[in-house]
Amino acid sequence: MRIVVTGTRGIPNIQGGIETHCEELYPRIAAMGFDVTVVRRKSYARDSLTEYKGVKIYDIPNLKKKSFEAIVHTFRAIWAAKWTIHADIVHIHAVGPALLTPFARLLGMKVVFTHHGPDYDREKWGKTAKFIIRLGERMGCLFANQIIVISNVANDIIKRKYNRNDAHLIHNGIPKPVFVDDTQYLDELGVEPRKYILAMGRFVREKNFHALVEAYSAIQQSEYKLVIAGDADIEDEYSRQLKTLAKKNGVVLTGFIKGKKLQTLLSHAALFVLPSSHEGLPLSLLEAMSYDLPVLISDIPANKEVGLEPSCYFHLDENIVETLVNILKIKLKEHIHPYYDLKPYDWDDIAKNVAEVYRICRPSVKA
Predict the structure, then answer these.
(1) How many whole angstroms separate alpha carbon 213 and alpha carbon 250?
(2) pLDDT over 90 percentage in the chain
(3) Beta partners for residue 273, in sequence order
(4) What's the CA gap between 34 and 46, in Å, rounded?
(5) Could you give the C-alpha distances from 306 to 137, 209, 282, 286, 343, in angstroms and in order?
(6) 3-state SS string over 216-255?
(7) Which of 53, 74, 219, 266 is the most exposed place for a label (fewest CB within 10 A)?
């Protein structure tokens, strides 16, 4: 069975939740005997790979313009899936790219659509973009052969709005943690083990990293540093302002990192903070949990679905900076060793469940 994956910027080592999701998932799918091709947006690739852990890589040039990039690239990926790769199934990730679901169906291919969350709620989109992304959600829900949702939040949306009651709930997963004793990278950053707050993610407004920086500055303490791992996909006014604000307040910015550097930060952090106003099912949170870190996260539905203790959450409202100041003061005095149930987030089980969706979609085609 030939499967073409689109809606992602690509794999491996490309920033983003969907990108991390695909990097973990598809090598496992390929190992089951499926012929998997991930179509990448060429400008994000840092290599010239044609294969990664059994997954074929197909690069297509892209417009690096956030308003049109995903839609145009998905159109070209679907065209290549039909006429070059000869796919049986196109797997479209995210509601924006799902706008092209009817196009893939018209070309005679089956479509699996993964709803990663209501992206039209992100603050970076204007009215026209929000309309197109909502339309993408509608097209995916009305025309996809099979739908996967990563959270009950997304499942409730498609049931309520489109009467689609047959979606497969398959969560995001967590790779097994690799604890790093070596602190050389921390020395390079100028931070000490258990003496820093860690945040991770893209530099977009809904992550509320600006509020976290302001709260960190307002605490007026010198014992703990704030480290933010991540960067902007496309530099814009917000990301530039955030970097300026961070530099002014002594915040350590690592840029986009993976592998041992990120593992080192996760191994030695005192506290993980995720103050987002929008998430799907946050991989950064799940990853922090896998390293047994105390966490402080906003009480948005996607975060609450993880089901942590009430003390892990703070109420997100217009007073976010003041709220973070008060709670951070308390959290940094605590010395707790949390336990998290991570069984629902096992990537091997997740891959088996996705493979079963493919078999349902094309029951007459063998892997």
Answers:
(1) 9
(2) 88
(3) 296
(4) 26
(5) 24, 21, 9, 9, 12
(6) HHHHCCCCCEEEEEECCCCCCHHHHHHHHHHHHCCCEEEE
(7) 53
